[in-house]
Amino acid sequence: MSVTFFITCLLVVTVVGAEVAPDEFQRQFDVVIMAKFDQLEAKVRDQEIQLKMARDEILSLKTKVQRLESVLVENANTKSRSVGSNRIVADKAMAATSSALFVPRTCQEARESGLPEFKDSGMYWIDPDGLEIGDGAIYVYCNMTTGATTVGHDSEATIEIPKCSNAGCYSRSIVYNGGSLKQMKALAEISANCHQTIQVNCLGGPFTVNGIDYAWWNDVSGTKQNFWSGSEESIHICQCGIENNCVRPDLECNCDANVAVSLSDNGNITLKRVLPVTKLNFGQINHNGGSHTLGKFTCSGKPSYAYPSSCADLWRIGYTLNGLYPVQGSKRVEFIHCDFSLGQNVQEKKIGYADVKTQAVEFYVQRSDELLSSSPKVIPFNVEILNEGGAMNLVSGTFTVPKTGTYLFDFSGVKDTSSGAMSVVFSVNDVKKASTLGDDPGQFTMNLPSIWHLVKGDTVKLTMSSGTLYSDDRNGPLVHFTGILLEEDIVFV
Ligand SMILES: *[C@@H]1O[C@H](CO)[C@@H](O)[C@H](O)[C@H]1NC(C)=O
Ligand SMILES: *[C@@H]1O[C@H](CO)[C@@H](O)[C@H](O)[C@H]1NC(C)=O
């Protein structure tokens, strides 16, 4: 190329130089040649830089391919051992170090990973039902501003509905990119919201008239559905019905008017549980014309649980490491073992419950001097050894339950010789629940251990009948009352 160029220069210079003196010609020739030479040199330098960049890129790609190959081999090796993939999206550092391994379950996860390769919106591989589990990854559009995942299908274009007469005489199955309904189901399950739009042009061709469905769609489970917009599964309706602007105010869909006029209905189906649409069915197309346009399947967000209550909840949030997890039980925090190696079909085993209390409640009070009464009387106390939570009022002798749960109490006191038969009654909200009796003459120790399930606000008291509870300086306090919260009913709100 440079030789051709040189000759071209020479020719140009020769033509121009024909009218000037030979010396001047030589000078002009040199100037032109030098200028061209400089240009060429710059060009070569530029090419060299680009070549080096290309070489670097190839090198980097080579390394990447090698890394991916090693991961593939590694995965093939670990597959048989059913080791859960070490993907915890929240752990950015971990995701970064294993970025070659990281295949997000949703675009939301990809976005949250913060990895540079997921910076721009575009097509990405995701694996909603879990890496190395279930069906293979699917190729989807990720909007990295919103984190929305959009899955295309084979029926996005406007498709003509041919004339036919019976209910559902025309059907079209929808095949999603990647072809896996399992992946669609998983995607919906691990997203906060999903939607899919549909537009139908009709000329006649009613959807539902007098309770008879001429048109319907099948949901992800194959179930027949006749709501064309919104999230109310049991109501036949289109967008015009929701907005109250259908051509016939008494109908919920324009097409249901069933007239020889071009009409159309729109819908935006938002019931995540039944999406995406797997089949469209139309019928009673008496006039020519009619078409359907089904939107892509879009899901966004992630489910949130203030208190996960199962391994499935944990899976939806993104946990994949097998192990013991505390979750919300009916009354207490429970421990479950989760085996995530089957992904969505996570195996759960209940192990037991965790002893979780929002607050410690325990008291031990005493009476250091003799207590004499000629009539039934609530026993007050004057020595506080322990009163964690402050629920025991010594002066009034009343324990007010601060937390609903199961409590253990114990009372012990000595009946004085001077008393005849004497009893101590344990009451909850002033209702007698249990009692102990000193019937013998002489000194006698009365005991009253018991366990109760009590509700916050309940009051607990000990009432002595007439008589004397003995205590003296020599033997120390002889009247004891203890209580402790054994198990609290945890309220999950
Ligand atoms: C992402 O979604 C938002 C909201 O729907 C939209 O405005 C924006 O154009 C989308 N961006 C891309 C790149 O698709
Ligand atoms: C459909 O509903 C979703 C969720 O409410 C919304 O984000 C989306 O913009 C709607 N699409 C149309 C076309 O109305």
UniProtKB/TrEMBL annotation:
Residues 356-492 form the C1q domain. InterPro entries: C1q_dom, Cerebellin_Synaptic_Org, Fib_collagen_C, Tumour_necrosis_fac-like_dom. Keywords: Coiled coil, Collagen, Secreted, Signal. Residues 1-17 form the signal peptide. GO terms for molecular function: extracellular matrix structural constituent. The keyword Coiled coil applies. Pfam families: C1q, COLFI. This is C1q domain-containing protein. It comes from Daphnia sinensis.
